[in-house]
Specification:
The chain has 199 residues and is α/β, with parallel strands linked by helices. Helix content is 44%, strand content 22%.
Length: 199
């Protein structure tokens, strides 16, 4: 009886957000690489119009499509949420995500604030939102500059302005994690996952 109930149980969506340079992608990747959690959590594969890089694999890192195909899927309501970044479009596909959830799989993904709000609205009972806080704005600026060594000061300033807006929304998330120390932040993220997934 218990096994049947477990099979019918929908998986959960763990959405991680935070400013550029907060460490959200590193935390999600590290969580999925954990031996125990890696069996219980899969990374959502987004669709993008960005060209495929040499080391990337189709349907592993992304589903790579043309702009025309992306727009066609948008019109057909096959994309749940989307954003435009550096001239390219990125989106979360409805069918693969729902297939994972119906298969009792937990799904992890990193999204901007708009994407978080949309998924929380569509799947209110199944979405866990986690915001990653940097230790301070000065540390965040340093991280952005280190990541973007060839980025001009105008772009750094633009990212910092966006970061301030994002930080104002942190209180609306289910959880907030301070990423001052990566191992400690990862430990907290693991604890949240195990609690929310019932693992």
């Amino acid at each position: 009886m218990k096994a049947a109930k477990r099979q019918n149980k929908l998986g959960k969506i763990f959405v991680i957000s935070g400013p550029s340079g907060s460490g959200k992608t590193t935390l999600l990747t590290s969580l999925i690489q954990d031996k125990k959690i890696g069996k219980l959590l899969v990374k959502s594969c987004s669709v993008t119009t960005r060209p495929k890089r040499s080391q990337e694999r189709e349907a592993k890192e992304y589903f790579f499509v043309t702009l025309l195909e992306f727009r066609r899927r948008l019109k057909a309501k096959k994309i749940l949420e989307w954003t435009r970044y550096l001239g390219y479009y990125y989106g979360t596909l409805k069918e693969p995500l729902e297939k994972q959830l119906k298969g009792s799989k937990n799904v992890g993904l990193c999204l901007d604030l708009k994407g978080v709000r949309i998924l929380k609205k569509i799947y209110p009972k199944n979405t866990v939102t986690i915001f990653v806080l940097p230790p301070s704005l000065s540390v965040l600026k340093e991280r952005i500059q280190n990541r973007c060594r060839y980025t001009n000061q105008l772009e750094v300033a633009r990212r910092m302005l966006l970061a301030r807006r994002e930080l104002q929304a942190a209180g609306k998330f289910d959880y907030c994690i301070l990423n001052q120390n990566l191992p400690a932040a990862l430990k907290e993220l693991k604890s949240i996952f195990l609690r929310e997934s019932g693992a």
